[in-house]
UniProtKB/TrEMBL annotation:
This is F-box domain. Residues 19-64 form the F-box domain. InterPro entries: F-box-assoc_dom_typ3, F-box-assoc_interact_dom, F-box_dom. It comes from Arabidopsis thaliana x Arabidopsis arenosa.
Length: 375
């Protein structure tokens, strides 16, 4: 009996000593260490102590966290009321494995033209925007921007200076000289009206946010001229950019080396044309990709460009799933094979049979985020 009591006292002294040593570490050092961990580990660390919970739920830590995590390629598709999500590392020097999960998604939602913006993804369901955090596996439905809007075009931007996400909404299929904007994470969740100096019609939800500026294709009212609209997320000011190409059907807006670009490949997927907006001037670049052992028509074209400047080709439904990275500087491909992504075993274990899993939605350069709309 005495031996048991002595053992308990030793354990208690050990716990007290460890707790004391941890508490003696400066808070900024603890914060830096925790910010280097994967999101799963950070969430687990919140159970360690009230201090660690306070650090990892602090707005500064949450805004800083995505900058510390490495970029990944996020793939997802919906079927039978579920969203199947796959996260793949983009860095060739990191171990190549697939993180995946499935989750119920809000009914009647539209995932077209999705982009990951500082770890969050925005899509719509009728006239309501929905914010999805793939890391936290949470969906948040925002209030309707305007009562009489039956449909919306929605974009998501991020101001890296103030660390704020903002959702921009306009009536769908209708030219407008105003929009509705809401800032995520604020105590007061209300929309405000922003006037636009150029009345226009957004072409679709295909926008991209680069260094605090949101870009999307549009048509000017009355003149019907194709343009690109820009929205400074911090100042909430709009501006107009002329297109150097023929019409809005040409190419896809993407970030390229920190600048706005529009990319398109030919029908045989070999020739790539890239228009880059540099110092307010459009520069045109052409790349001719080398031949590959499998026709690139089995891929869905260029889905984006990695932070290292590689063009990404993601396949349609294939029995063996792989991704091609094309480096224009080296004029070479890098192929990465992945197991467990929509292959026969995956279909069998999830009861999907031979049904089509198209389309795969792709988000390039996705980072983990701890942000929640109600935080």
């Amino acid at each position: 009996m005495e031996q048991q009591e002595e053992k308990k006292r030793k354990i208690q002294r050990s716990i007290t000593t460890q707790s004391s040593s941890v508490s003696s570490i400066p808070l900024d050092v603890i914060s830096k260490i925790l910010s280097k961990l994967p999101a799963k580990s950070v969430l687990r660390s919140r159970c360690v102590s009230k201090q660690w919970l306070s650090i990892t739920t602090d707005p500064y830590f949450i805004n800083m966290f995505p900058k510390q995590s490495s970029s990944s390629l996020l793939l997802f598709f919906k079927t039978k009321g579920k969203l199947f999500v796959f996260s793949l590392h983009q860095n060739p020097n990191e171990p190549q494995h697939v993180d995946s999960y499935q989750i119920k998604h809000p009914k009647y939602c539209c995932f077209s033209y999705t982009e990951s913006v500082h770890g969050l993804i925005c899509f719509r369901r009728a006239a309501k925007p929905i914010i999805w955090n793939p890391t936290m596996r949470k969906f948040s439905t925002l209030p309707k921007p305007k009562r009489n809007w039956k449909g919306i075009t929605v974009f998501l931007g991020y101001d890296q200076i103030e660390g704020k996400h903002k959702v921009v909404c306009m009536p769908r299929g209708k030219a407008s000289d105003e929009c509705r904007v809401i800032t995520l994470g604020t105590a007061k969740k209300s929309w405000r009206t922003i006037k636009i100096n150029h009345k226009h019609l957004p072409i679709n939800d295909n926008g991209t946010c680069i260094n605090g500026v949101l870009y999307y294709k549009a048509k000017l009212h009355q003149s019907n001229v194709d343009i690109i609209m820009s929205f400074d997320v911090r100042s909430e000011k709009f501006d107009m950019i002329e297109m150097p190409w023929v019409n809005h059907y040409w190419g896809k807006l993407i970030p390229y080396a920190g600048m706005l670009a529009c990319v398109k490949n030919t029908m045989d997927y070999k020739d790539i044309t890239l228009w880059v907006l540099e110092d307010a001037k459009w520069l045109c670049k052409h790349f001719t990709a080398p031949s590959y052992d499998q026709p690139l028509k089995s891929h869905c074209g260029i889905n984006g460009v990695t932070d290292d400047g590689e063009f990404i080709y993601v396949p349609y439904v294939l029995n063996s799933f792989y991704i091609l990275y094309y480096d224009p500087e080296k004029n070479s491909y890098r192929k990465v094979d992945f197991e467990g992504v929509a292959d026969d075993d995956f279909r069998l274990s999830n009861g999907l049979g031979n049904e089509s899993l198209y389309p795969f939605h792709t988000c390039v350069n996705h980072t983990e985020s701890l942000f929640l709309c109600n935080s």
